[in-house]
Write a structure and sequence with these properties.
The complex is a heterodimer. Chain A is an alpha+beta fold. Helices cover about 35% and strands about 20% of the residues of chain A. Chain A has an eight-stranded mixed β-sheet with strand order 1-10-9-4-5-6-2-3. In chain A, strands 7-8 form a two-stranded antiparallel ribbon. Classes of the chains: A alpha+beta, B mainly alpha.
C-alpha cells in the first residue's frame, strides 16, 4: 500500500510538472472551444457571444437564482475580485451568469439578481435546447431534483467559472476553492493578454 | 415508457461520425464474412456469432447512446463505461475470435492489397509482438486504467472531447488485444507464444493492482475527481456515493472478469491435456 501511494504521488508529481506554471487557477487553453452561444438577455432580447466578446474578458458561470449556496458564494467572490482589479480594468471584464432554471428564473428575477452584484454582471438564460447546446459545448451539465411539497427543487450545475480572453478563447477554469489572490492575478493576466 | 423515450435513450448524446462509421463498417464486414464462411462450409458456431454481436452491441451502447451522457457526468457511470469497454465488451469480442470471419468479409481487393501486406509487414508484426509480450500486455492493461485515473489526466480527458474519445478508444483496443492474448484458443499465434499456465498467472496478477486501485478510490475520504463537481452531475447524488460506487466498479467486477478468464483457460488446458493423452504421437506436444 505504501509503495502504491508513493507511486501514485510520483505520477501526480509528474503530471503536475507539465502544467502551465504562470497561471494560478486551472489553465485550459486549447482544451475547449471558443465562446459561442445564442441566449436571451435580461431584457428578453436574443443575444449571441458577439454582443459580449468585443475586447472584453468574459467570465461564464452557470447557476440559478434560487440557488442556496454555490451561486451566491461564487458571484460574491467574483464581485470581490472585480473590486480588487487595478484601476480601469473593471470595464474590460464581464461576468455572464447563465440561469439553467428558465422555468423559475423570469427576466425580472434574473435582472434583480445580477444587479445586486453590480453592473458588470449580466444575466442570461434560454430555452432548454439553447442551454443544452451551450452546456455540452463546455462539457458541463445541469439537472433537476424532485420538487418538494412547496414545489421547490434543487438544480445541479457546474461549479466552475470559465474565463475567456478578449478574443473569446477559453483559457481558465476557476474553481470555488481558488483563492481570491490567485483569481485576481489570473484575470489581470487575461486582460493584459 | 413510450417509443419516443426509447428512441431518445438510444440516440447518441454527441454524434460521432467515427464511432457510427466504425460500427457500420465492422458489422457489414462481419455479416459478409459470416455468409462467406457459411458458403464455404467453415464451422463458426452460433455461440461465437453471439459473443461477437453482444460485445459490439455493448460497446456501442456505452459509447454512442444516452449512456455516454451519464458516463461524462457521473464518475460511477464512467467507470461502468470503461468496465464494458475494457473488460466485458472486449472480452466477448476476443472470445468470439472474429478475425477469420472479418477477413473473409473484406472485399477481395482490400484483403489482398491491404490486409495481407499489412499482416506480413515486419514493422506491424514487430509492434504486435511487442504489445503482446507477456510482460508488456498486462502492464499496458493495468497501466491504462491507472493512467486515465490520474486526477489531472482524468480532468483533461473529461474537458476535451478529442482526449475523451482517445481515452475510450485506447481502453477498447487495449482490452481486445489483452483478452485476445488470454483467450486465443491456439497457444501459438502470429509468432506470439504464450502458454495456458502463464495466461492464468497473468490474469491472477492483474487483479491485484485493480483491487488496490478500486479499494483506494472507494474507501478514500477525499474527493479525488473534482471534475464531476466542476462540470455538474447528471442528477443530484452525493460526491461520496458517486466515488464509492465508481471505486467498487473498478474493484469487484473487473476482478471477476479475470476469474471468468481463468476458468475459460482452465477448460482449454484440460482439453489440450485430453488431446495429448489421446494422441498416439508424444511429439505432438502443444503446451
Amino acid at each position: 500500500m505504501k509503495a502504491f501511494v508513493l507511486a501514485w504521488a510520483l505520477v501526480l508529481l509528474m503530471a503536475g510538472c507539465s502544467d502551465q506554471t504562470d497561471w494560478q487557477t486551472r489553465y485550459i487553453g486549447g482544451l475547449m472551444p471558443e465562446l459561442q452561444f445564442t441566449l436571451t438577455d435580461e431584457n428578453g432580447k436574443t443575444v449571441t457571444e458577439a454582443q459580449y466578446a468585443n475586447n472584453t474578458v468574459n467570465l461564464l458561470f452557470f447557476g440559478y437564482t434560487s440557488c442556496p449556496d454555490v451561486c451566491p458564494v461564487t458571484l460574491a467572490q467574483m464581485r470581490q475580485v472585480l473590486d480588487r482589479l487595478p484601476e480601469g480594468m473593471v470595464g474590460k471584464v464581464r461576468v455572464l451568469f447563465v440561469s439553467v432554471d428558465p422555468q423559475r428564473d423570469d427576466l425580472e428575477s434574473l435582472r434583480r439578481y445580477t444587479d445586486f452584484f453590480g453592473d458588470r454582471f449580466v444575466g442570461l438564460t434560454g430555452s432548454r435546447e439553447q442551454l443544452d447546446t451551450l452546456t455540452s459545448r463546455y462539457r458541463t451539465t445541469y439537472g433537476y431534483g424532485e420538487p418538494d411539497a412547496k414545489g421547490n427543487y434543487v438544480v445541479t450545475h457546474g461549479s466552475a467559472v470559465y474565463g475567456f480572453d478578449a478574443a473569446g478563447r477559453a483559457q481558465l477554469l476557476i474553481r470555488n476553492d481558488d483563492s481570491p489572490d490567485a483569481i485576481v492575478a489570473d484575470i489581470v493576466q487575461l486582460v493584459q493578454g | 415508457m413510450q417509443a419516443v423515450d426509447w428512441l431518445y435513450l438510444l440516440l447518441p448524446y454527441q454524434f460521432s461520425p467515427v464511432i457510427a462509421g466504425t460500427a457500420v463498417v465492422v458489422l457489414t464486414v462481419y455479416f459478409r464474412g459470416a455468409r462467406a464462411a457459411a458458403e464455404r462450409q467453415l464451422q463458426v458456431g452460433f455461440g461465437r456469432h453471439l459473443a461477437f454481436f453482444a460485445g459490439v452491441a455493448l460497446c456501442y451502447l456505452v459509447l454512442h447512446t444516452r449512456f455516454d451522457y451519464y458516463a461524462q457526468y457521473m464518475f460511477f457511470m464512467h467507470r461502468l463505461q470503461h468496465l464494458v469497454l475494457h473488460h466485458i465488451g472486449a472480452f466477448l469480442i476476443a472470445l468470439s475470435a472474429p478475425w477469420s470471419v472479418l477477413a473473409l468479409g473484406l472485399p477481395v481487393g482490400i484483403r489482398e492489397r491491404l490486409l495481407r501486406p499489412l499482416v506480413r509487414n515486419r514493422l506491424v508484426r514487430g509492434l504486435y509482438r511487442a504489445l503482446q509480450h507477456p510482460a508488456v500486455a498486462p502492464t499496458l492493461f493495468v497501466g491504462l486504467i491507472f493512467f486515465w485515473l490520474i486526477p489531472e489526466v482524468h480532468f483533461d480527458a473529461m474537458l476535451n472531447l478529442k482526449l475523451y474519445h482517445l481515452m475510450n478508444a485506447s481502453m477498447l483496443i487495449d482490452g481486445i488485444l489483452f483478452w485476445w492474448l488470454m483467450l486465443n484458443p491456439s497457444v501459438q499465434h502470429a509468432s506470439v507464444r504464450i502458454g495456458y499456465g502463464l495466461r492464468i498467472l497473468i490474469m491472477v496478477l492483474i487483479t491485484v493492482p485493480q483491487v488496490v486501485l478500486g479499494a483506494y478510490i472507494a474507501l478514500s475520504r477525499q474527493e479525488l475527481f473534482e471534475i464531476y463537481a466542476i462540470c455538474g452531475r447528471a442528477w443530484p447524488i452525493s460526491p461520496e456515493v458517486d466515488q464509492q460506487l465508481g471505486g467498487i466498479l473498478t474493484w469487484i467486477p473487473a476482478a471477476m472478469m479475470s476469474v471468468l478468464g481463468v476458468l475459460l483457460v482452465l477448460r482449454m488446458l484440460l482439453r489440450a491435456e485430453q488431446t495429448r493423452s489421446e494422441a498416439p504421437n508424444p511429439s505432438a506436444d502443444i503446451a
